[in-house]
Amino acid sequence: NKSGWLQKQNHSTTFSGKWKKHWFVLSEHVLYYFDSPGDERPRLILPMDSVRVGRSTENDRTLQIVSADGFSTLKCTKCLDNGRMELQTYKDFIMRAATKEERDEW
After folding, report:
1. What does the pLDDT read at residue 96?
2. Distance (Å, whole) CA 28 – CA 36
3. Phi and psi at residue 47, in whole multiples of 5°?
4. What is the pLDDT of residue 16?
5. What H or E segment, with its residue span, contains residue 104?
6. Rounded distance, CA 78 to CA 45, Å?
7. Is the Cβ–Cβ distance between 34 and 21 less than 8 Å?
């Protein structure tokens, strides 16, 4: 199990390139992220089966999660503000650690 603060790049086209800090937890092949460590409900649940994690070419503190085959979308569960859960797909997830060493720990 691993947990800690990482920044996640926003997927929205309106806010493309913006980074937001989230509390991430990696537990038993599932990645969760929360607004803060004490939150009971994750904002997003991403199964880590059939994914590939690599270093992004953008900077040496960045991680990128893509599908294992490089073509499929990532399927995850997003927890909406109204309490509902919704299946969503994304091309990738890009996260940034505070340091290169922290990135390597993830």
Report:
1. 94
2. 20
3. -65, 135
4. 60
5. helix 100-105
6. 6
7. no
CA distance 98 to 5: 8
Is the Cβ–Cβ distance between 70 and 79 less than 8 Å? no
pLDDT at 55: 86
Positions of the chain with pLDDT lower than 70, given as ranges: 12-17, 57-58
**What whole-number distance in Å separates Cα of residue 42 and Cα of residue 80?**
10
End-to-end Cα distance, the chain: 10
Q: Identity (one letter) of the amino acid at 78?
A: K
| Euclidean distance between CA atoms 101 and 37, whole angstroms | 21
Looking only at the bridges linking them, the beta strands covering 74-79 and 44-47 are: antiparallel
Asked whether the whole model's pTM tops 0.85, one would answer yes
CB-CB neighbours of 39 under 10 Å? 14
Beta bridge partners of 23: 5, 34
